[in-house]
What we know:
- By secondary structure, the protein is of the alpha+beta class.
- Among the domains are: about 15-85, MutS, DNA mismatch repair protein, domain I (3-Layer(aba) Sandwich); about 180-235, 5' to 3' exonuclease, C-terminal subdomain (DNA polymerase, domain 1, Orthogonal Bundle); about 255-410, Dna Ligase, domain 1 (2-Layer Sandwich), CATH 3.30.1490.100.
- It has helices spanning about 15-25, 55-60, 70-75, 85-100, 120-125, 130-145, 155-160, 180, 195-205, 210-215, 215-235, 265-285, 320-335, 360-380, 405-410; strands at about 5-10, 35-40, 50-55, 80, 105-110, 115, 145-150, 170, 255-265, 290-300, 305-315, 340-350.
- The strands form three sheets. A five-stranded mixed β-sheet has the order 5-6-1-7-8.
- Helix 7 links the parallel strand 7 (about 145-150) and strand 8.
- Helix 4 runs parallel beside helix 15 (about 405-410) and helix 12 packs across helix 13 (about 320-335).
- The chain is globular.
- The protein starts with a strand and ends in a 10-residue tail after the last helix.
- Bound molecules: magnesium ion.
- The site of magnesium ion (MG) has 5 residues, from strand 1.
- It holds the Pfam family IMS_C.
Amino acid sequence: xxxxxxxxxxxxxxLSWSAAHEIWIxxxxxxxxxxxxxxxxxxxxxxxxxxxxxxxxxxxxxRTGETLVEARNRCPGLIIAPPDYDLYVQCSKALMELLGRYxxxxxxxxxxxxxxxxxxxxxxxxxxxxxxxxxGAEIRSTLGFTVNIGVSDNxxxxxxxxxxxxxxxxxxxFKGEIPKKMWPLPVEDLFWVGRAASRKLRxxxxxxxxxxAAADRGLMKQHLKKHGEFIWDYANGRDTSPFLQELPExxxxxxxxxxxxxxxxxxxxxxxxxSLTETVCARLRADGMKAGCVGISITDRDFRHASRQRTLVxxxxxxxxxxxxxxxxxxxxxxxxxxxxxxxxxxxxxxDTAYQYNLFDMDRYEKYARxxxxxxxxxxxxxxxxxxxxxxxxxxxxHMGGGIDKAKRTGMTKPLPYxxxx
Length: 422
Ligand SMILES: [Mg+2]
């Protein structure tokens, strides 16, 4: 059976959801979407960045991810509304429920994006493009916000298509349309072509997606390794990457954090990882669990997302063990683009059974386990901040990172992809 996918993506999700709630539920008369406005956290703490912007704000040159101070400088009259993560989770759920009425399988990719399997629905719903328009209209009239829908024969192309002109549009990008609709675009428009990859491609004379598609796959592998092969496949419309694959039911413990400033050096990044790992491992220990797999996710300043995981020699809940494994992944994964958000996730969580001693680290493990136990004890009696690793003293990173808002744990970050080559 031919595959058919919709990729449904909410337009300026946080801003639209806040605006719709204000008008529809609270009966307000100002639609944030019609004035220069942004959703942003407090200007005092690390959430002080633009999370979403209205169309009129975009016309002032305001960009997602820049600081609220920068945004205010561009537009002194700017309205800054705080994020309401509980509301966003509700809106996201309502959207997924609606989509679930028309698709036999929904793969929610992030809080405001989902892939809908639509194969075999032609007899039921008719022309897939007309039907996508109908769903878009239903979302608009019943939920009060707009979406873009990309229609294609694979997920990657559907996602690409939903990113074409916005808002409130349906676009197709079937395989046969690739030369016309995708190849003329700059190579940076391709997913996971970050700054480092873009620089390398440009020095090789590759400027458009078409240039990349026409390049030699072996050459791409030589310059960009596995990543080079993925993006070459993307450029040719082949969805071979693990990024869009669905995770098996994830029972992992994880945490992510938006960092106060762009992280551009590995030392700071490792501190963020340590801070996140501390929290994740404390939760595992508190629940009497261990994780057999740890992963890192990185979102850069351009909101490009990358993640990878690796299997641990044996399941653990020891902060330092987990931290070391996470750092190894980080070194592999980071392409030097300034980091805005990092996550540490675990999976293959099992009950705290006997640690499989590795001959060489037996002593160390026992020491670390006792240390963690002692620290957990102190924190439970005197509070989380009663003891911290010296590396966090005097810095501006929290020593137990993440857990800032529960929405982040319930879909605010993209799921960790399954990595078949691991
Ligand atoms: Mg969106």
